[in-house]
Amino acid sequence: MNVFFKCFLYLVIISFGFFFVGRLMPKKFHYLRFPYISFGFEKNGEIYNKIRIRKWQNKLPDMSRIFFSLMPAKKLPKQVNVQNMERMVQETCVAEFIHVVLCIMGLGCLLIWKGIGGWVLFVLYLLGNIPFILIQRYNRPKLVRLLKRLQIRETTVESKKQEITYEESSDIKLQYGARA
After folding, report:
1. What is the CB neighbour count within 10 angstroms for residue 49?
2. How far apart, in whole angstroms, are the C-alpha atoms of residue 35 and residue 137?
3. First-to-last C-alpha distance (Å) of the chain
4. Burial code of 86-101, b = ≥16 C-beta within 10 A, e = fewer?
5. Contact 138, 53 (CB under 8 A)
6. Would you tell me which of 85, 90, 110, 125 could form a disulfide with 27, CB atoms 3.0–4.6 Å apart?
7. In the chain, % of residues over pLDDT 90
C-alpha cells in the first residue's frame, strides 16, 4: 500500500476512533481551570472576532449534524437551565480536548511516511483541527457567562423558596407556642 494511503487511513481511523472516545468520556472537565479557561490574551473569546469566527464557524462540518443520535445539538435548547448549560460547556471541553489529541496523534504521519510527504499531511491535518479548537475557545466563555447567570437565578429562586419555608415554619412555631 502506498504511504500516502497508509497515512490517510491512519488519520481517518484516529479521527473516527477519537470521536467515539469523546462520546464515551466522562463529562467532568474543570472548565474554569487551565487549559479550558480563557487565557488573558483571548479576552474571554473576543480575540477570535478578529478572524471573523462568527461568520465561518457554522460553515464547518459538525459531527452533531452527522451523528445527531450520538451527540447533543450545538444549539441552545428552548428551555435553558443549569443542567443543559453545564452539559454544553462540558461538550466544548470534550471537543477541544479531542481535537488537541488529534493534533498530537497526527504526528503519527511522520512515522508512517518519513520525509516531506508525512510533514505535509501532518500540517494539513493540524490545520484542519485548529479551527475546531478555536471555535470551542470562542464559544466557551459566552456559555460559561450564561451558565453563571442561570446559577445565580436558580440560587435566588432556591433562597426565596427557603425563605418562604422558613417564614412558614416560624409562623407555625409561633402559633404552636401561642396555643401552649
Report:
1. 12
2. 10
3. 93
4. bebbbbbbbbbbbbbe
5. yes
6. 90
7. 36
Report the alpha-carbon distance of residue 89 to residue 138 in Å, rounded. 12
> CB of 99 within 8 A of CB of 133?
yes
Please write the tens of the pLDDT for every residue from 33-76: 899 888 888 888 888 888 988 888 888 877 766 665 666 666 66
Q: Name residue 61's amino acid.
A: P
Nearest to 90 by CA among 146, 156, 140, 54: 140
Q: Which amino acid is at 105?
A: M
Q: How many residues does the chain have?
A: 180
Buried b (16+ CB within 10 A) or exposed e, 145-177: eebeebeeeeeeeeeeeeeeeeeeeeeeeeeee
Q: Is the pTM of this model over 0.70?
A: yes
